[in-house]
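Hello again, I could really use a second opinion on something today. Take your time with it, there's no hurry, and the full record follows here:

___
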Amino acid sequence: MAELSTVARPYAEALFGAARNDQATSLAGWSSLLADLAQVAANPEVGAVLSDPRLNQAQRVDLFLSLIKATLPQAARNFVELLVQNDRLLLLPEIASQFDVLKNRHEGVAVAEIASAFALSDEQVAELVAGLEKKFGRKLKPEVSLDASLIGGVRVTVGDQVLDTSVQAQLARMRDTLAA
């Protein structure tokens, strides 16, 4: 069976292309809208109900759209209908994730996943991000999380690049050096 990311990619790319040309809604608006749709689709109870074979496609669309709090533009309704027709509605979380990657790439922005052993103040995060932006040569959006296993320091992941200055990584390097 194909990976979810492989199946979701064409939908994310097609929606991104349409969203770029949408004069009424910005890319950030589409991203927010997709996040709302993905949150509903990720609910296991919603997935169970939408998988009920007694529901036809129109009922699935109506049921799903009734769970969305925001008013949807017609293009978003059409997209939901397409996903229901192709039995891909439950891929919305992956589609939303890939859409955000495309949006960030288009805007020249990358997500910096910062794992720290201790809570970082806003000032510390801003200082760290400023240094990382120089290192990586692009604008970064920080996503900070706590990971006590690091013992101290931080681990930063930007795309497929990892910068690990944690105590845990330093101890592992010392262990490897001593074992060699």
Summary: Residues 108-179 form one domain. The longest strand covers residues 109-116.
